[in-house]
DNA sequence: AATAAACTCAACCGCCAAGCC
DNA sequence: CGGCTTGGCGGTTGAGTTTAT
């Protein structure tokens, strides 16, 4: 088994995308829709592997993507969702309209994990650290004097003898493995560009919906997700009618704020439900909730 | 102003599950 | 049933940029 990395073909471009490549990819998807990534580059006249095209489209070129300026609300939501879901960036991204998993992952790694640490919270477990970590800017000052390594040396330092990356002193948190869900929605996906712009539903979001991932955080007596909502570019279905014809494009900041509020409210409901239990029970419920999103 | 350190984020890598044949 | 392809995900890298000294 096994297969060669998809970018191993000789002659394929790698690295940063040029405006011309972006245009070619965008125009092709406008004309033919997403999907068939493997054959797309050739048809679009791109010397890129399909994987690279998909990544570029999903993380950068998609018309519904918001860039930068993560709001305090979004910031807070990411932290809370991460405490519930762990590093399941695609699930978290599915609840933040216009945000990509890559962007959230980067934002987490560069901002939020530091922020939490500085607040005395372990970013991977969301539990209180014994003592708050010294402020980042202080560390930055201090490191200058004690650390003469350049960046490459630092990278090497974090690798073991076999070249594998070794995370220093960072306990691995084992979370339930995300379950990949069958993609009947993906199959139903309308591949036209119109669809992708009006539904603004990414493949991830579609999967998330099926995984419960796009759903609201409501429970029935069996701790199962009750309601899915669908609005503002992510998969949210109002009520139990997951009518995709009701898809909406984010039209205003107000709409967006309301969606965030809804998400937040739903999330709080989920958390409040578990707040009445002991920690262990809490964890079990959160785990089962996380699982319920994925099954 | 020059230099080094730190930071950011787009892109790549490797793995895995689903689907197809 | 098993091998192969495809799409998707999370982790990691490193070039470019910003900040501190």
TrEMBL record:
<dbReference type="InterPro" id="IPR017930">
    <property type="entry name" value="Myb_dom"/>
</dbReference>
<dbReference type="GO" id="GO:0005634">
    <property type="term" value="C:nucleus"/>
</dbReference>
<feature type="domain" description="Myb-like">
    <location>
        <begin position="62"/>
        <end position="112"/>
    </location>
</feature>
<keyword id="KW-0539">Nucleus</keyword>
<feature type="domain" description="Myb-like">
    <location>
        <begin position="9"/>
        <end position="61"/>
    </location>
</feature>
<dbReference type="GO" id="GO:0003677">
    <property type="term" value="F:DNA binding"/>
</dbReference>
<feature type="domain" description="HTH myb-type">
    <location>
        <begin position="9"/>
        <end position="61"/>
    </location>
</feature>
<feature type="domain" description="HTH myb-type">
    <location>
        <begin position="62"/>
        <end position="116"/>
    </location>
</feature>
<keyword id="KW-0805">Transcription regulation</keyword>
<keyword id="KW-0804">Transcription</keyword>
<keyword id="KW-0238">DNA-binding</keyword>
<dbReference type="InterPro" id="IPR009057">
    <property type="entry name" value="Homeodomain-like_sf"/>
</dbReference>
<feature type="compositionally biased region" description="Basic and acidic residues">
    <location>
        <begin position="124"/>
        <end position="136"/>
    </location>
</feature>
<dbReference type="Pfam" id="PF00249">
    <property type="entry name" value="Myb_DNA-binding"/>
</dbReference>
<dbReference type="InterPro" id="IPR015495">
    <property type="entry name" value="Myb_TF_plants"/>
</dbReference>
<feature type="region of interest" description="Disordered">
    <location>
        <begin position="115"/>
        <end position="152"/>
    </location>
</feature>
<dbReference type="InterPro" id="IPR001005">
    <property type="entry name" value="SANT/Myb"/>
</dbReference>
<protein>
    <submittedName>
        <fullName>Uncharacterized protein</fullName>
    </submittedName>
</protein>
């Amino acid at each position: 088994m096994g297969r060669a990395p998809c970018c191993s073909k000789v002659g394929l471009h790698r690295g940063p995308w040029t405006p011309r490549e972006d245009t070619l990819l965008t125009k092709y998807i406008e004309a033919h829709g997403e999907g068939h990534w493997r054959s797309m580059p050739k048809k679009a006249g791109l010397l890129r592997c399909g994987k690279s095209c998909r990544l570029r489209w999903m993380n950068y070129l998609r018309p519904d993507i918001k860039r930068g300026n993560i709001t305090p609300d979004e910031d807070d939501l990411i932290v809370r969702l991460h405490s519930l879901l762990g590093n399941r960036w695609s699930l978290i991204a599915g609840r933040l309209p216009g945000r990509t998993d890559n962007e959230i992952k980067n934002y987490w790694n560069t901002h939020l994990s530091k922020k939490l640490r500085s607040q005395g919270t372990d970013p991977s477990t969301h539990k209180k650290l014994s003592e708050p970590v010294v402020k980042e800017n202080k560390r930055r000052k201090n490191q200058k004097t004690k650390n003469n390594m350049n960046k490459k040396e630092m990278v090497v330092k974090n690798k073991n003898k076999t070249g594998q990356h070794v995370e220093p002193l960072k306990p691995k948190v084992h979370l339930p493995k995300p379950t990949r869900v069958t993609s009947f929605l993906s199959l139903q996906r309308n591949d036209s560009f119109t669809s992708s712009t009006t539904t603004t539903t990414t493949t991830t979001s579609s999967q998330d919906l099926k995984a419960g991932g796009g759903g609201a955080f409501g429970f029935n007596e069996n701790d199962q997700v009750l309601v899915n909502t669908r609005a503002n570019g992510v998969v949210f279905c109002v009520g139990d009618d997951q009518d995709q014809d009701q898809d909406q494009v984010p039209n205003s900041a107000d709409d967006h704020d309301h969606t965030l509020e809804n998400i937040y409210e739903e999330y709080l409901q989920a958390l409040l439900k578990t707040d009445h239990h002991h920690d262990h029970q809490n964890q079990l419920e959160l785990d089962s909730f996380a699982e319920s999103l994925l099954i």
